[in-house]
Amino acid sequence: MTIEFDNKIITGAPALRVILVEAEVVNPPTPDALWGEIEAEAANIHKSFPMESVRLRPAIDATRAAYKAFGKDPNRYRPSAEALMRRAVKEMALYRTLAIIDLINLLSMRSGHSIGGFDADKIEGDTLTLGVGEKDEPYEAIGRGLLNIEGLPVFRDSVGGIGTPTSDNERTKLSEDTRRLLMTINMYGDSEMTAEETENMARELLGKYAGASDIRISYWKP
Questions:
Q1: Which of 183-187, 192-196, 202-206 shows the lowest mean pLDDT across its residues?
Q2: Is this prediction's pTM over 0.90?
Q3: Which long-range contacts (CB under 8 A, 24 or more apart) does 120-125 make?
């Protein structure tokens, strides 16, 4: 899989880098060991981050800045990493689903980056384009119905949008039947973790909880 960047992304998010992860996987219900790591991370976030500081975390702040550059209000359409952290700070229950979905959430909470996870067999074509959502562009977000993606960064395959930092699309979502994973780690700026540390953690979690093999990682930037 390759990534192309349109001019709006290049202009509005010049520091953007994407780590593209492809792997053969299994995706069972989230095991207790992974859920224990998630609960521990949520407790650490609750202890370490006052609510007003969540949006100032470097990776989250950079993603919010990109939203603003494209004319999107990040307080109304929050990046997924910020939404996860806010739930943790409030001690709200997180959703326990499938191993890959929850390990992506764990990686997102630790890094501050919003991360997309897709069933590669549901993606049309072998090139993704990262652009900006258009007015009235159809997009069915997972568990949210139609989402207004105008002004949101959006990955598109040859059919249409599959992922934004706020929510991925129903059409390419992960399921227990997923055997080929495509993950996009969207780095709009700096994080407490280096890109290499983020990559290594992704490898570790995928191997530990998703039986990953043939892991292929590439770096992309405008």
A1: 192-196
A2: yes
A3: 120/1, 120/22, 120/180, 120/181, 120/182, 121/178, 121/179, 121/180, 122/171, 122/172, 122/173, 123/1, 123/157, 123/162, 123/172, 123/182, 124/157, 124/158, 124/159, 125/157, 125/158
